[in-house]
Predict the structure.
Amino acid sequence: MLGTLNGALEVRGIRLAPEDIVADVEGRNELEDGIPLLKEIVVHYRLRVPADARETVDRTLERHQSKCPTARSLEGAVQVRWTADIEEV
């Protein structure tokens, strides 16, 4: 999802340095019949964006999951959600 978000921002003219677009990701497994199965992925973004780009960043965040090949592939099997801390610079 990070790559999809970064690409979507770049298409909109917002190029962020690697240290300005970071994701921490956690997965949650549950045992079913003694087998650990991945049930949820939570992506937490830490973004530093130009102040004048905030609205574009917010709109892009709202849409990026639906355009992410990995998130779309997991639909129905694994819940994927995201949060974001955004710092305007």
